[in-house]
Specification:
The complex is a heterodimer of chains A (214) and B (372).
Chain A lengths: L5 E5 L2 H15 L11 E4 L3 H4 L2 H7 L7 E7 L4 H14 L13 E5 L2 E8 L8 H6 L7 H16 L10 H11 L8 H6 L8 H13 L3
Parallel strand pairs in A: 1-2, 1-3, 3-5
Antiparallel strand pairs in A: 4-5
Helix pairs in contact in A: 6-7
Chain B lengths: L4 E4 L7 E3 L5 E5 L6 H12 L5 H9 L17 E3 L14 E6 L6 E9 L6 H8 L8 E6 L8 E2 L5 E3 H14 L7 E3 L6 H11 L3 H11 L5 E6 L2 H4 L12 E5 L4 E3 L5 H15 L4 E4 L11 H15 L2 E5 L3 H8 L11 E5 L8 E3 L1 H9 L6
Parallel strand pairs in B: 3-15, 3-16, 10-14, 14-15
Antiparallel strand pairs in B: 1-2, 1-5, 4-9, 5-6, 6-7, 7-8, 11-12, 12-13, 16-17
Helix pairs in contact in B: 3-4, 5-8, 6-8, 8-9, 9-10, 10-11
The chains are: A alpha/beta (214), B alpha+beta (372).
């Protein structure tokens, strides 16, 4: 519960940190949950973010003006987009057939519902793929080296899930070699290890500001 | 059972509907959004041929005209009808209507101001003009389907005078069977006299035990409660008429006046007596949580649920309390078909209340969604 009229639901703490890290660079982010641009709630999974019955009550929350949802596309973007469309219909709205590249924003009964599917509203992937686009161009050789290391670790029985989490292992490996090493993605943006001004970042910031009337 | 209600022109409501009502309905919303006005509208609708509801509403709110006291002129209490109309205007044509839109048979009532025609009700006009310097230009017409109610003349100030209104009430009572009024419990609960009257109807019946059962939610050592009248006798001699009139006995203790207990006991007594005595009726409770600690809320709702189901009563209550809303969730069903309980949020300038079904109340409580 928060008196903040803007609420944002995310899957995990990393997404929460990345959003705050990015938006703090662009519009500032006071610590008070009622004064920050949006009150962020970590829901634990994409299923929990996109729970239809929960969302139908959430949209009726007292004082709510805008509700944002950020979910990962994971391995099947179209399947995730179908789920999003299904949720929108359940909430009484008519979503577009194709997901807008710059993120979805709908008006439902005078309140705004926004959806951003990581990484870019059209590809499979997750927050880590979004953050990959924030890697500075001069860091590309090290990025490439990290990719090879992850691959090699796989051959040495590293237990990470090769099918789903290679991209995740990749960015965290790269972050492990920054100064300071091993920062989480949100802190890496704050500390300018990751670029705040990339095209993807600009697009996300634009969606966020439009959704929450900033 | 009223499933939905439409209010047009009453107080702040130009045209306002509340849908999806159940047997128990909790009205929430910010201050000044009209929660109490919905309760009032329900009381006007329910006791449509019983004219006492309007007088009670206006006098409870203290909506009286400022009247110069002139020596030698008898003083009659008056209530100002302007405030029951959207815009607070007293002019011919102003009115409001309240209807239950999906109940069968339908139930509706309309109050509006008409040009005064003394020949329609010479008795009432005669009473008014005997004390008013000039004849009244307006009358309050009350329209109930199938019932003829002569318009009641207003004073020049646009107020209803007590003697005229009482006479209209008596004439109505003589000519038409009276609807039972809804039981309205204010934040101050009920007065001693009201509680005694209700107690008379349950005395030495099993309902008495129900009242004790409810009081035990607050103090488990309470064993008996009984009315006493001595305090009423002294009521005019500086004794309060707000609290008292009952003695309570706890286990292994002497009897004590109810005033020795906290606010919660007095509140629970009013709730329990009204709920235990009402059959097939409507119970309206303003700020239900007043004086009650959050730990008794769930028991209170369970009591209300059980009794209202058994006696076929419909309950409407208002609250600002998160604990009260949260406790109601404990008696709600997970089933999406369950419609016995609803929460309705009233928001200013909206045409409809925002309804929450039982399963939605459950979700809101579990997920900490603010629905007040």
């Amino acid at each position: 519960m928060s008196a903040n009229p803007n609420h944002l639901l995310v899957e995990d703490q990393d997404t929460c940190g990345a959003v705050i890290g990015l938006m703090r660079q662009h519009i500032g982010w006071p610590d008070s949950r009622d004064e920050c641009p949006a009150f962020i709630e970590v829901r634990g999974s994409s299923g929990a973010v996109l729970n239809k019955k929960f969302l139908s009550v959430k949209m009726k929350e007292s004082g709510l003006a805008s509700l944002g949802l950020i979910v990962d596309a994971d391995t099947d973007f179209l399947a995730r987009w179908d789920t999003v469309k299904d949720v929108c219909r359940y909430l009484g709205s008519v979503p577009p057939e194709i997901c807008p590249d710059d993120g979805l924003i709908l008006d439902i009964g005078g309140k705004k519902l926004g959806v951003w599917i990581m990484p870019d509203n059209k590809s499979q992937g997750m927050l880590e793929n979004f953050c990959h686009t924030l890697v500075p161009p001069e860091a590309k050789p090290l990025w490439e080296f990290a990719r090879k290391c992850v691959e090699k670790a796989g051959t040495k029985k590293a237990p990470y899930n090769k099918e789903f989490h290679t991209d995740k292992a990749h960015i965290h490996t790269w972050l492990a070699w920054q100064d300071p090493p091993g920062e989480r993605m949100g802190a890496a943006i704050t500390k300018k290890i990751l670029l705040r001004g990339s095209d993807s970042a600009q697009c996300f910031v634009c969606w966020f500001k439009t959704l929450f009337d900033i | 059972m009223i499933h939905s209600i439409r209010i047009m022109g009453y107080r702040a409501f130009h045209d306002f509907s509340v849908r999806g009502l159940g047997r128990i309905n909790l009205l929430v919303g910010k201050n000044n959004t009209g929660k109490s006005s919905v309760l009032e509208a329900l009381s006007l609708l329910w006791g449509s041929t019983n004219l006492s509801a309007l007088w009670q509403i206006l006098s409870r709110r203290g909506e009286q005209p400022v009247v110069d006291i002139q020596p030698g002129r008898p003083i009659q209490p008056e209530v100002d009808v302007a405030h029951i109309f959207t815009g607070h205007q007293v002019r011919i044509g102003t009115g409001f209507s309240i209807s239950a839109t999906n109940e069968k048979p339908g139930r509706s009532i309309k109050y509006h101001l008409v040009e005064a025609k003394p020949e329609e009700n010479p008795t009432l006009f005669g009473m008014l003009t005997s004390q008013e310097p000039v004849g009244s230009p307006m009358a309050l017409a009350i329209t109930v389907p199938g019932v003829h109610i002569p318009p009641i003349p207003l004073t020049q100030r646009g107020s209803l005078r007590n003697d005229v209104y009482n006479q209209a009430f008596n004439m109505m009572r003589a000519s038409h069977p009276q609807d039972e009024t809804a039981q309205y419990i204010t934040p101050e609960s009920l007065q001693i006299q009201q509680l005694h009257q209700l107690w008379n109807e349950i005395t030495l019946k099993p309902e008495e035990d129900r009242v004790v059962q409810a009081l035990k939610f607050i103090d488990p050592t309470i064993e008996r409660i009984a009315p006493v009248t001595s305090q009423l006798i002294f009521g005019g001699f500086g004794y309060s008429n707000i609290r008292g009139g009952f003695l309570v006995r706890r286990k292994d203790e002497e009897r004590l006046p109810i005033g020795s207990f906290g606010d919660g006991i007095w509140r629970m007594l009013a709730l329990a007596v009204v709920l235990s005595r009402t059959r097939n009726g409507l119970i309206l409770i303003d700020e239900i949580d007043t004086g009650l600690h959050h730990t008794v809320m769930t028991k209170m709702w369970k009591f209300i649920n059980d009794v209202s189901k058994e006696f076929n009563t419909q309950v409407f209550a208002t609250t600002h309390s998160y604990d009260c809303v949260h406790a109601l969730a404990a008696i709600c069903s997970e089933s999406e078909d369950a419609r016995d309980i609803s929460i309705q949020r009233i928001e200013a300038d909206k045409k409809e209340a925002i309804p929450f079904s039982e399963s939605e109340i459950k979700i809101a409580a579990r997920q900490h969604i603010e629905i007040r």
